[in-house]
Design a protein that fits this description.
Elements lengths: L1 E8 L5 H18 L3 E3 L11 H8 L2 H17 L2 E9 L5 E8 L5 E6 L5 E3 L5 E3 L14 E3 L2 E4 L9 H9 L4 E3 L6 H19 L2 E4 L1 E7 L2 E4 L3 E3 L5 E4 L8 E7 L1 H10 L13
Helix pairs in contact: 1-3
Pfam families: CN_hydrolase
Protein name: CN hydrolase domain-containing protein
GO molecular function: hydrolase activity, acting on carbon-nitrogen (but not peptide) bonds, in linear amides
Length: 274
C-alpha cells in the first residue's frame, strides 16, 4: 500500500496567496509520508470575472505558480496533481490538470472536456464555455507511485462515459479535482463520486475548493478519497478555516480483489462500448 494525500484550499484572485496555500499542503503531505498530493481544480486562481481570469492566466505570477510547485516537488520528493489555467486563444482559456513528478517535470496534462454551464435559482450563474475551450480528447491513464491514474475534472463527474473509458484502459485511480457549487455539492457530490468508484471498481480522489472565493462565488468543499467498493476513506468537510490535507492508503490488491470477485462483464453486443 502507498499513501496518497488529497488537499483542500480556497483560491482567490491572488495567485501569490493561492501558491502559499498549495505549498503548505505540499509540506504537510510530504511530512505525512504521502507519495502524491492531489490539489483542486483552479488552484492557481479563481477570478471574479472573465476579464480578470484571462488577465491572470497571462500573468508572470501564473507562470511562477507552476514553477514554484515544480521546485517543491523536487525538494519534498513528492508528485503533485494540480488544476491550473492556460491561455488557449485571444478569448478563451484551457482548464487544465497537470501532473508534476518528483523530479519537477510536467509529465501529464488533461484539458477539461465537459464545461459547466448553469444558472441556479438564488445561486450563481456560471457559463464556463463562454471563455473556456473544451478539451479534444481523453488522455490515457498513466503509471504513478500509487497506481495507474486517469485524469478528469469537476463537471466530468456527471458523465460516466469518461470514467468508463479510463477504466477500460485499466485506470486504478480516477481524479475529480473540483470547485463544486454549494447547491450542487449538497445534492450530488458524494453520490456521484461513490457511483464512479463503484462502477469502475477504482479509487476516486477528488480534491475540492472550499469556502468563499469572492463576493459572488463559494465552493462546497468535501475533498474525499473513496475506495473501489465505494467506501469514503477520507472527507475534509465543508467548514473552511485553513488549507488541509487528508490521507489514505491506496491498496492495489483491493482493486484487483474487487475486480476479480465482482466481474463486470459488459454486453457490448447490445450497447456501445464507452
Amino acid at each position: 500500500m502507498v499513501l496518497a494525500a488529497v488537499g483542500q484550499i480556497c483560491s482567490t484572485a491572488s495567485i501569490t496567496s493561492n501558491l502559499a496555500q498549495c505549498q503548505l499542503l505540499v509540506k504537510k503531505a510530504a511530512a505525512a509520508g504521502a507519495k502524491v498530493l492531489f490539489l483542486p481544480e483552479a488552484s492557481d486562481y479563481i477570478a471574479s470575472s472573465a476579464e480578470q481570469s484571462y488577465s491572470l492566466a497571462k500573468s508572470s505570477e501564473r507562470d511562477s505558480f507552476v514553477s514554484a510547485l515544480q521546485k517543491d516537488a523536487v525538494q519534498q520528493k513528492i508528485h503533485i496533481n494540480v488544476g491550473i489555467h492556460e491561455v488557449a486563444s485571444e478569448s478563451r482559456l484551457r482548464n487544465l490538470l497537470i501532473w508534476i513528478d518528483d523530479q519537477g517535470a510536467i509529465t501529464q496534462s488533461y484539458q477539461k472536456i465537459h464545461l459547466f454551464d448553469v444558472d441556479i435559482k438564488d445561486g450563481p450563474c456560471l457559463k464556463e464555455s463562454a471563455n473556456v475551450q473544451p478539451g479534444p480528447q481523453i488522455p490515457k491513464p498513466f503509471e504513478t507511485p500509487i497506481g495507474r491514474v486517469g485524469l478528469s475534472i469537476c463537471f466530468d463527474l456527471r458523465f460516466p462515459e469518461i470514467s468508463l473509458a479510463l477504466r477500460r484502459q485499466n485506470a486504478e485511480i480516477i481524479t475529480y479535482p473540483s470547485a463544486f457549487t454549494v447547491p450542487t455539492g449538497k445534492a450530488h457530490w458524494e453520490s456521484l463520486l461513490r457511483a464512479r468508484a463503484i462502477e469502475t471498481q477504482s479509487y476516486v480522489i477528488a480534491a475540492a475548493q472550499a469556502g468563499p472565493h469572492n463576493e459572488k462565488r463559494r465552493s462546497y468543499g468535501h475533498s474525499v478519497i473513496i475506495d473501489p467498493w465505494g467506501e469514503v476513506l477520507a472527507d475534509l468537510g465543508d467548514e473552511y478555516q485553513e488549507p488541509q490535507i487528508a490521507t489514505a492508503d491506496i491498496d492495489l490488491n483491493l482493486v484487483a480483489k474487487i475486480r476479480r470477485e465482482m466481474p463486470l462483464l459488459r454486453r457490448h453486443d447490445l450497447y456501445p462500448e464507452f
